[in-house]
Each structure stands twice: as C-alpha cells, then as structure tokens.
Amino acid sequence: MLIVENIEVFYGDAQALDGVSLQIEEGAIVAIVGANGAGKTSLIRTIAGMLSAARGRILYRGTDITRWPSHRVCDLGIGQVAEGRQVFPTLSVAENLAMGAMLPRARHSREQNFEKVYAMFPVLMERRHQAAGTLSGGEQQMLAIGRCLMGAPDMILFDEPSLGLAPAIVQSVLRCVRDLNRDGLTCVLVEQNVAVSLKLASHAYVLENGRITIAGSGETLLADDRVRKAYLGL
Fold it and tell me: What are the start-end ranges of the H helices in the chain?
C-alpha cells in the first residue's frame, strides 16, 4: 500500500532521516519504534507531506507522492493523528469534526462519517457544542482521531496517540487503533508504549538516529534482546 524508498530529510544542515526504507501492507498495523529524537515524527510528517524529502521517494498504491503538499496526500486517503492532538481549542467539538470533512474525498460522506464518529466516541456526541479546548486530554485525543476519520482515510498515521494520557485512557485509545484496523483501516503507529505497540503490530521497524536498524514482525521484535534491553528495560 505504501513504499518508502531511501528517504533523506534535513532540517537545515541537520539530517533527520538517512536512507529510510519501509513497506506498509494494506490492512496491517505497523509500529515505528525508537527513542526520542530518532526521527519517528519526521518520518510521519514526511509521509504526510508536511516535510519535503531531499532524496528518495514515497509511493502510495503505486502513485509517486514524493513532495506532494499535505492537502493532496490527505485527499488521496492518508490521514494523520498528530502528536499533541492539535485540536482547534476555540471551536466546538462538532466544528472540529467538520474541519476534517472538508477534503473533496470526504464531502459526500460527511453526515455518515459524523454518525460513525459519534457511535465510536459517544462522549463527543454529548459534548458536540462544547469548546474543544475545555475537553480533557483523553477526550481531545478522541476528537483528534474522530477529526481524522471525518476525512475518510484508508490509512492513518498515529503519532504518539497516548502521550500525556492517564493509563486507563491509554488502553482505550490503543484499543481504538485495534478496532479501526479490524474495520479495514491500515494503521501506522508511533507510540511511546513500545510493548503494547509491538503486541498490536503485525510488522514493526526500529528507528535509531534517522536509520532503520531492525525490522520484523511485532512478535519477533518483542523477543529481540536488543529491543528488550533498549526499549523494554528487560
């Protein structure tokens, strides 16, 4: 579904990604694992069209989308749930969700997608007239996921969806990722909770200093001594 080939990304003279290559199969959950500063968010933002690759290419269902602007990438079917949620705090819950439906691909299914999001997150229905900035962290994360779903994506890039949330809410958010995948969405998961993300993932990549150093099934990486020592404290 998605092929990343030898991507290199720079911030000025500082290199964030160095020859990164990976493949995402349709219907999979793929985890990207790595320490802070390893380049995980840079990778997500490059796929989403928010950063421009200096070299390499990105193919989505056979179409070369390298250096496409983010709105074109979104309208092709790649959604993103950004780190830090990034809701519009002064807009209501319903207005935030409506923003996600502004893509041409999503306009015809706007009302249907509202129903789906409210069915998945009933609290958003209850608080649809409430300003998004007054929601709890967990509710804002639900809103960020819901807003992405309003764009009718086929693939979602999740960037640290559990960051800053209480443990009980973390389980709920990650359960949501699993449920969305079971409903047919392809999911790319960057998540600080390495053990849980590897248990969810059918395939996983370890990113260190801008390079892929280990790749394999989630189960294989969970059993890898290097991963267990570096990320699981075992």
Answer: 40-47, 70-76, 93-100, 110-120, 122-126, 137-149, 167-182, 194-200, 218-223, 225-231
